[in-house]
């Protein structure tokens, strides 16, 4: 008899843990897609739903039950593309689990630094996104697949105005250029100056929605900037760019606090 009484208290806890683990796996599954932010919001609603059940809040429980019933169909319609890509990855190990040695990261940084400074001297604009924890799958698929090892010459050739791929941005993962002519989301920050161009807004927009680092050369002023966490870091010389990228990339996880400290340096 005592066992059944204890089980009545333990069962809701087990159910909550199972549901929480399932939602966490789903979030990881869709990381880097448009559905990711929506699913994050749904986890909070699910938590509220479970609390309302445990607390006996009947009205809130009824409202959330109806909401979840309608939202399932809506999500299936809105995120068809994400579901297709996600199901195609089932059975695989965690994708893009690429790790580089420190010396390899430094080599990538030096190649990037040389490339953007050459483009700046040639008065050629560029937009290069470096993928970190947040997967940039949606933006990668908006461009043309490249999958080539990073080199100064490759970056220069991709942004040469006479080439078909010079419009849009380049996305890098680890030491490889994975896609070119990619479309980045434009920042909707109302505080930005009206004279800021599309390339600047695209650099900021991607870093507002993801943890990517974006290197940018302005075609009008030839100035080099690094965008991170929705902010620009002006670059005065090649040494400063190398040092900033080392600070951002050499540690496996970079906190927002540290990034803000670099921005204000």
Structure report:
The protein is of the alpha+beta class and 265 residues long. It has two domains: 2-88, no CATH class; 102-263, YojJ-like (1 (3-Layer(aba) Sandwich). It has helices at residues 2-29, 35-55, 58-78, 80-88, 102-121, 137-141, 152-159, 198-209, 238-249, 256-263; strands at residues 126-130, 144-149, 169-173, 176-182, 213-217, 224-228, 231-235. Strand 5 and strand 6 (224-228) form a beta hairpin. Helix 2 (35-55) runs antiparallel to helix 3 (58-78). Residues 88-97 and 252-265 have low confidence and may be disordered.
CATH architecture of the largest domain: 3-Layer(aba) Sandwich
CATH superfamily (homologous) name of the largest domain: DNA integrity scanning protein, DisA, N-terminal domain
Which blocks of ≥5 consecutive residues have pLDDT under 50?
88-97, 252-265
Q: Quick one: CATH class of the largest domain?
A: Alpha Beta
CATH topology of the largest domain: YojJ-like (1
Q: Largest sheet, if any? A: 7 strands, mixed
Strands, total number: 7
How are strands sequenced across the largest beta sheet? 2-4-3-1-5-6-7
What is the succession of H and E elements? Answer: HHHHHEHEHEEHEEEHH
- Cα distance, first to last residue? 66 Å
């Amino acid at each position: 008899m005592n066992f059944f009484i204890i089980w009545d208290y333990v069962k809701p806890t087990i159910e909550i843990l199972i549901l929480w683990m399932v939602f966490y796996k789903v979030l990881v599954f869709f990381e880097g897609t448009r559905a990711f932010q929506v699913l994050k919001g749904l986890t909070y609603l699910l938590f509220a739903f479970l609390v309302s059940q445990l607390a006996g809040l009947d009205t809130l429980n009824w409202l959330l039950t109806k909401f979840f019933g309608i939202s399932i169909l809506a999500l299936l319609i809105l995120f068809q593309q994400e579901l297709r890509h996600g199901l195609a990855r089932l059975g695989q190990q965690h994708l893009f689990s690429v790790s580089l040695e420190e010396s390899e990261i430094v080599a990538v940084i030096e190649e990037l630094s040389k490339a953007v400074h050459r483009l700046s001297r040639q008065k050629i604009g560029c937009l290069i996104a470096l993928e970190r924890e947040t997967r940039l799958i949606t933006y990668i698929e908006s461009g043309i697949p490249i999958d080539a090892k990073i080199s100064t010459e490759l970056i220069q050739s991709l942004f040469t105005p006479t080439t078909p791929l010079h419009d849009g941005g380049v996305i890098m993962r680890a030491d490889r250029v994975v896609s070119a002519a990619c479309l980045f989301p434009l920042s909707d920050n109302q505080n930005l100056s009206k004279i800021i161009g599309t390339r600047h807004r695209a650099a900021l927009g991607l870093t507002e929605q993801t943890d990517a680092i974006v290197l940018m050369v302005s075609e009008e002023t030839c100035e080099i900037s690094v965008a991170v966490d929705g902010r620009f870091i002006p670059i005065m010389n090649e040494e400063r760019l190398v040092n900033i990228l080392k600070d951002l990339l050499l540690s496996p996880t970079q906190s927002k606090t540290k990034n803000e400290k670099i921005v204000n340096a």
